[in-house]
Amino acid sequence: NTFMLNVEQKLNFETMATIFKTGYSRIPVYEDVCTNIIGMLFVKDLIFINPVDETPVRNFVQIFGRGANVVWIDDNLGEVLSTLKRGQCHLALVKDINKGDDEQDPFYEVKGIITLEDIIEIILGDQIVDETDTWVDAEHTTRVKRTNDFVWANLRLLDAKIVDQTLSDDELRAVSAHLSSNFASIFDRLSEKQLLRMIAATPVVEIDTAEKEVNEFLPSDLMYEKNSPSDKCTFILGGKVTVIAGNDNFRSDVSSWSLLASGALIDSVYSPDFSAYVSSGPCRCLQFTRDIFDAAAASSVLEMLPPAEVDNEMKLKSISEAGNVTHGLDRTGQSARMNGKGNEDVVKLRGELLQKLLSTRHIDEQIAAGDSIGKVDDNVDDGEPPL
Fold first, then answer.
1. How does pLDDT run across 277-329, given as a tens digit for each residue?
2. Cα angle vertex 339, ends 336, 344, to 5°?
3. Distances in Å between the alpha carbon of 66 and those of 28, 36, 60, 174?
4. What is the distance in angstroms between the CA of the first residue and the CA of the last residue of the chain?
5. What's the CA gap between 297 and 353, in Å, rounded?
6. 3-state secondary structure (DSSP) of residue 355
7. Which class for 104: exposed (0-12), middle (13-18), buried (19 or more C-beta within 10 A)?
8. Is 28 strand, coil or helix?
């Protein structure tokens, strides 16, 4: 059950994410066979590593020269404890002499590992579970139960090389939480359900690094061009985008978890006051269109209306013919009790929303498709078709 690395492996994002998930701080490195341990990798040393460089584990071991203590299988724990307390490493390889048979000579063989924590647990007579442990015991029979587990899928958002057509369930929720928390002025128009569905229906795109000619200030393949109309808002998942803004062409770089051109979602005549291009790609991003945002916003308000047993066309007709409406919703989604002339405002608002829904049916179908793409949970039965 010992997690080890082959000396031929590369310290890329995938390998480092695997190391991170194990929760171990010291990892044996072997060559050819797992019993031939040639060094140790200390996880704290990985702070010097850029996953993009894909540094070979062999080079890493040679640079840091981390070695492991060696103890023998018949040593008593007092002697082993004294060895581990010296500070070289809190992990030791346990070796024994394999006498084999008469046809071959005896040879040294690694039987396993022992750590300082193992000895302390024996002294205390109980298991010690730290904040990164996955298993309670060394035999991996009991998994650690935590109330707030780290969402490992979120690590993929940091790797621009991993490009899927859509986000995973955990990524969907992470992006949704980030947008609703940090860009509330835009996305508070959407309910939690509709925001998730919009993100799920939006494909992940990859944009290559923009190529600039000699003496060219801006490349020709821009994400956004200053004063040029746009109906797309871009959420960056990976890569780096350079933004040129202002009369002085002030330059700034934005990367993961940044949002560009959010005004495009709410302004029908939006033109960015900046130019932007991918300066370090590929850039992995989501590009939300104004049409799909409008459809999601309309569906969000409709979620708060009383359910009906007829289809959308019949609802539109019945609302226009309604004589008395006692409950309605204002444009901020707050409930209001209205009588008399106030009913007309509610009828008008509901009619506008339903007409918007009908006119953007093809866009709304994309949002509904997000339920199957991202497997977004929806346990609310509102008696209506998917919005």
1. 999 878 889 999 998 999 899 888 888 776 654 355 444 444 444 333 333 33
2. 85
3. 10, 15, 9, 37
4. 49
5. 9
6. helix
7. exposed
8. strand
Paired tokens of 19 = 């190391």
Task: Tell me how far apart the alpha carbons of residues 285 and 260 are, in angstroms, rounded to a whole number.
Answer: 11
List, as own/partner pairs, every contact residues 193-197 make where C-beta atoms lie below 8 angstroms and the sequence separation is at least 24, other chains included.
193/300, 193/303, 193/376, 193/378, 193/380, 194/296, 194/297, 194/299, 194/300, 194/303, 194/367, 194/387, 195/296, 196/172, 196/370, 196/374, 196/376, 197/296, 197/367, 197/368, 197/370, 197/371, 197/374, 197/376
Provide the pairing of β-strand 274-289 with 91-98. Answer: unpaired
- At residue 106, φ and ψ (nearest 5 deg) are -60, 150
Q: What pLDDT, in 10s, does the model give residues 32-82?
A: 888 888 888 888 888 888 887 888 888 888 888 787 788 888 888 888 888
**What distance in Å separates the CA atoms of residue 250 and residue 377, rounded to the nearest whole number?**
44
Q: Where are the alpha helices (DSSP H) in 23-154?
A: 57-64, 77-84, 116-124
Return the number of other C-beta atoms located less than 10 Å from residue 222's C-beta: 15
What pTM value is reported for the model? 0.47
SS3 160: coil
Distance CA 42, CA 27 (A): 6
pLDDT digits (tens, 9 = 90+) for 15-29: 888 888 777 888 888
| Bridging pattern class, strands 327-329 and 335-337 | antiparallel
